[in-house]
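Re: weekly structure request thread

Next one in the queue (137 aa):
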Amino acid sequence: MLIISNTVSIPDDELELSAIRAQGSGGQNVNKVSSAIHLRFDIPNSSLPEFYKQRLLELKDKRISKEGVLIIKAQQFRTQEQNRDDALERLKTLILAATVVQKTRHATKPTRGSQKRRMDSKTKRGQVKSMRGKVDY
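Done, posted below.
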């Protein structure tokens, strides 16, 4: 069972884990050992609350198919167990990241004092630059 929060968890039967051969360098071991993990998670048919499902399906993530199946491939480590833990951890962080609600941004205006300070500094800088010109006697 994958525990997401105090109230939300995903049972093991909803996660489809399969071992595959890893890509990349590694010599003969890569061709013999299936150490990479494919994790498939069907979002619409899961036991997650509707809020979680909706937020996950709204993500513009290339790992989520049109049918709503999330596919995570973990092949960073040499052992199957470490890749399995990595895939589950990545699924957990994705779900938690999808549920974070962004604060609404409120447009603000600069204060009158800050505007005055800005204009004064511009005037002062302009005076410094004008003093660099040719001197007439």
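The mean pLDDT is 86. The radius of gyration is 28 Å.
Next request, please.
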